[in-house]
Amino acid sequence: RDVYRDSLAMLNWGGNLTFSAPTLHLPTSIQEIQKIVTGHSGPIRVLGTGHSFNDIADGGVMVSLKKMKKILKLDTEHHCVTVQAGITYGELAVYLHNHGYALPNLASLPTITVIGACITATHGSGSANQCLSAHVIGFEMVTGTGSVVSISTPEQLEALVVGLGSCGIVTSLTLKLEPTYEVHQAVYASLPFDIAMKNIDTIMNSAYSVSLFTDWKSKVFKQVWLKYRVDSNAIVPVSFFGAPLARKPQHPLVGFNPADCTAQRSIGPWHERLPHFRFEAMAAATGCEVQSEYFVPKQHAAAGIKALSALGDDIAKLLMVGEVRAIAADNLWLSPFNKRDSIAFHFTWVRKEEEVLALLKKIEAALAPFKPIPHWGKLFCMSVEGLYERMPQFEVLRRQYDPSGKFVNGFVKRHVPVTKQARL
User: Fold this and answer.
1) Measured between alpha carbons, how far is 219 from 287 in angstroms, rounded to an integer?
2) What are phi and psi of 100, to 5 degrees?
3) Which of 36, 37, 55, 38 is nearest to 47 (CA)?
4) CA count, 13 A, side-chain hemisphere, 387
5) Residue 136 and residue 174: Cα distance in Å, rounded?
6) What digits encode the pLDDT tens for the residues 137-149?
7) Gap between the Cα atoms of 384 and 309, Å rounded
8) Which helix (H) or strand (E) is 303 found in, with range?
9) Considering the chain, what percentage of its residues have pLDDT values greater than 90?
10) Residue 420 burial (CB < 10 Å; 0-12/13-18/19+)?
């Protein structure tokens, strides 16, 4: 087993967090993972690509699965694929497309690991598209006792897929697939807030995936990214609610190279259009930023835009770019989208964490009337107490898989409180 000691490698992707563990374990097998679990008291945490901006992955013992990224089985009879947990979406997507398959959706950044995305309910966009965790139809996990368990029933999956890494180390996942498809990506410029708010449902339902980019100060969505599935026979308009097609390729962040983005004004394979950024361009990249994201019920989309617009001057001082997306409801216990179709308000900030955290308190207060829920892997200040109906039952179940709390770090202690009275 390799143990990596380079302190520079212990920074997260955004560069705002230095992980506390002195070593990073790099197992190549389930047996090696079992030895790590049984040989340490914890807290043991798994590090994906480091694309989290809080301490969710931090621990006294850290494990990277980047040497466990094999595709274990493509099941053409049941239309699913089983992969080792360390594989990234970009690596998996090329393989699936070459074999005639696709995933229902992808996140904006294809370099994240499948497991990191699934345990945090990471998502793409699209009113009819659920988060990436909803693609999981089974997984295998090393528990706190070192035993290996398989999770596959609908009831187990709803409870444990979004598990925050607190029940065990997931070693492999099985994902549902569909036939490969093509996507036409079109980018439009300058959609005023007042038009967007009046037509927000129609706008968010207008394409397979919709993203609205803004600085919140100008009261305009400066870019509108629409991704149409070619097999839906959708017609790509020359203007969108008065916003014209962009004349040249765009990058969501002002001053950044559009060549890093997926191709626009053209048709291509699903994995080369659904993410905002090209896998090849981002594979070796690191960020100099922090991120936050809040989800509100879809019916509050216009009101949420209005509330954030009122803070536009403050937001713009620290913002690199803001994005609005839609995500469909699911039944996963710790998913922010549990039983509610949602609108996401995403913020990419300059790396001034103390100032950002102070501003987040204002943003959370402004969104409070709409019952916001934060992204598990990004910066937030608010408490999640009472936001997840099944949280008490999850904690009971979590302790069954990890009775001594080996996978409980500071983040889990703060957000998954022990509730002795709860029962399954």
Assistant:
1) 27
2) 85, 15
3) 55
4) 23
5) 6
6) 999 999 999 999 9
7) 24
8) helix 301-309
9) 88
10) exposed
